[in-house]
Write a structure and sequence with these properties.
- It catalyses: Hydrolysis of terminal, non-reducing beta-D-glucosyl residues with release of beta-D-glucose.
- Its EC number is 3.2.1.21.
- Belongs to the glycosyl hydrolase 1 family.
- GO terms for molecular function: beta-glucosidase activity.
- Keywords: Carbohydrate metabolism, Cellulose degradation, Glycosidase, Hydrolase, Polysaccharide degradation.
- With 474 residues, this protein is an alpha/beta fold.
- It has one domain: TIM Barrel.
- Helix content is 40%, strand content 14%.
- It has 16 helices and 13 strands.
- Strands 1-2-3-4-5-7-10-11 form an eight-stranded parallel beta barrel, surrounded by seven helices. A three-stranded mixed beta sheet has the order 6-8-9, covered by helices on one side.
- β12 and β13 form a beta hairpin.
- α8 runs parallel beside α10 and α15 packs parallel to α16.
- The protein is globular and about 55 Å long.
- The mean pLDDT is 96.
- Bound molecules: beta-D-fucopyranose (FCB).
- Beta-D-fucopyranose binds next to loops.
Length: 474
Amino acid sequence: MTNEFEGAAALAARFPTGFTWGAATSSYQVEGATDADGRGRSIWDSFVNEPGRVVDGSNGDTAIDSYRNIAGDVATVKSLGLNSYRFSLSWPRICPDGDGRINPAGLRYYSDLVDALLAEGITPWVTLYHWDLPQALEDKGGWPVRDTALRFGDFALIAHTALGDRVKHWITVNEPWCAAFLGYASGEHAPGRREPAESIAAAHHLMLGHGLAARAIKSADPEATVSIGINFYPVHAASDAPGDVDAARRVDGVQNRWFTDAALRGTYPEDVVEDFKAITDFDFNRDGDLETINAPIDVLSVNYYSRFTVTGNGGSASASAAPTGAGSAWPANEHIGFVPAGLPVTDMGWEIEPAGLTEMLTRLHAAYPEVALAVTENGAAFPDKLDEGRVRDPERLDYVQQHLSACADALDAGVPLVGYFAWSLADNFEWAWGYTKRFGLVYVDFETGERTVKDSGRWYGDLVRRARSNREAE
Ligand code: FCB
């Protein structure tokens, strides 16, 4: 029988002192209590009520009840030995109409959560936007409309004013690619619109919102660590055929360069601009916007799950779309298809390639040497079963181990990697997949809410304890 903690000591020793060890969640996926205490509606509250949008017909009304269970969530983070927890703020819980009217009860929840974490020595990493736009702003046009970015800048200041005395790590926007292109091009995510040209305006305004938020936080607290979270994928051409090579350039451009170049260089990549010109005249990009977007940030937050192989000959329009009738998430690139490379896959059908994480971290550091990097999401869904009080999830344990080893390889190569957050702390509402996909280190019985740490969570906790005691004792 193999020792389940095999390799943990050696792996732990590869991480530096002061490394951030965490797990991540997001507001709509865990909080529930969507009607409680003056919270406004978000686009996800509306979307889940439209028939056919979520594969199991479920919603986030209860989720895993985090709004009512601060003590339980903090105890879970603590039981894993983590020194950090990444969660997001529900914008409509704090600003029910998306404007300057504040709901004090909403702010109090996050303030209490922050206090409870700090009391246990756990550092909060707060994401300002993880996809739950106030419905009131969607009613006025949503992210394709410029005003939404301005309102987001205001919201960042409201959040920082309330929490900034205690919260020092801020992530502005989580995965603008998903918010723009799954929300407004394919329609797989809320608000479910299929308007390819508008989705490019949405992407721009998400970045403008990022820039405004980053500047608001930095001017209020120059010591704060500010970041943006982007989902990165190594992209391979299916063959040497020119159409496939061009498809790889296009997908890499949108996924790996569009948002990052804007944030860190203040430019959009020329080749992608040319591609997008087929469907938009960019009239939403006003003078000065890219300077605003190019706000100084400290950390680039890397969300990494998988890799892509693409062709220029159509086929599957997405590597991961839910079977909810979504259109293409690739505006101006609808001819591109995603093909399997034959690697092992998770329950999402996402191919597992740990070396791709080292590759992305090394590449990002070479391209943007001025920022530190943190892995702010990494994890895998598998169909877990609770069996006499235990969840045996060797595939997830392997996944986390191999990706941490990939992080250590990046550290060895000189990448300034400051942290790792597993996605997710606990099983939760996985967007269009509802409760059918389990990503947690902790199993949740969705009927009773009961939590059970999975084998992968015990392994990760053991690794973190070893790393922290090795290093913190030095
Ligand atoms: C990421 C999201 C996160 C979760 C994981 C599986 O794209 O940021 O909320 O859904 O995927």
